[in-house]
Amino acid sequence: MEDLNIPKQKKEVEIAFKDGGFIKKTKMILFLNRFSAYHTGEETVLEVLNDKAQFIPAMIMNGDQKFSILNVDSIFYVSELDDIPDESDKENLSIQFITGEKINFTVHEELPGNRSRAIDFLNTDRSFLTFMKDNRKVYINKNKINKVEIV
C-alpha cells in the first residue's frame, strides 16, 4: 500500500481559525505536490487553498504532531513563516474579519493596470488572496472578511 503514496513537500505555516469569538493561529504543516499543475516548480500554498478540494490534509505542530483534515472554508488566513522582502508600493488595507478583529495588510499580487483597484482585487473569482504582513505572505479567505478600508 505504501507504493501508492505520492511524495509531498512539507510546508510549515500558521493557520488562523475562529476559536470562540477570536481568531487563533496554530502552527501546521501543509502537504504540497512536488509539481504544480499550473507552472513549473512546486505547488504553492495559494494553489492548495484555491483548489476545488473542500478538505485538505495537515499536521498540527502544537506539542504532539497530530494529523488532521481541515475544512478550507473554516480557515480565516494562512501565513507563511519565511520572511521575504516587501518592496511593493501596493495599497495598504485594513481588513475587518467577521469576528470584528481588524488587521492591516498590504496587497501583494500584481494586478493589470485597468483592474488594479482594491475592489477589483477583492472581487476576483478566487477564495484566497495574497497579502503581506510583517514581511510574510498571508493568504486571506475572502469569505471571512466583513469590511475593508484603504489606509
Topology:
Blueprint: E1 8-19, E2 22-33, H1 45-49, E3 55-60, E4 66-71, E5 77-80, E6 92-97, E7 102-107, H2 118-122, E8 128-133, E9 136-141, E10 145-150
Antiparallel strand pairs: 1-2, 1-5, 2-3, 3-4, 5-9, 6-7, 6-10, 7-8, 8-9
Q: Mind explaining what this structure looks like?
A:
It is a single chain. The protein has 151 residues and is mainly beta. It folds into two domains: 6-80; 92-132 and 142-150, no CATH class. 7% of the residues lie in helices and 46% in strands. It contains two helices and ten strands, in the order E-E-H-E-E-E-E-E-H-E-E-E. The chain has helices at residues 45-49, 118-122; strands at residues 8-19, 22-33, 55-60, 66-71, 77-80, 92-97, 102-107, 128-133, 136-141, 145-150. A ten-stranded antiparallel beta sheet has the order 4-3-2-1-5-9-8-7-6-10. A hairpin with a 2-residue loop joins strand 1 (8-19) and strand 2 (22-33). The longest helix is centred in the N-terminal third of the chain and has 5 residues, at 45-49. The protein starts with 7 loop residues before the first strand and ends with a strand. The model has no long low-confidence stretch (mean pLDDT 90).
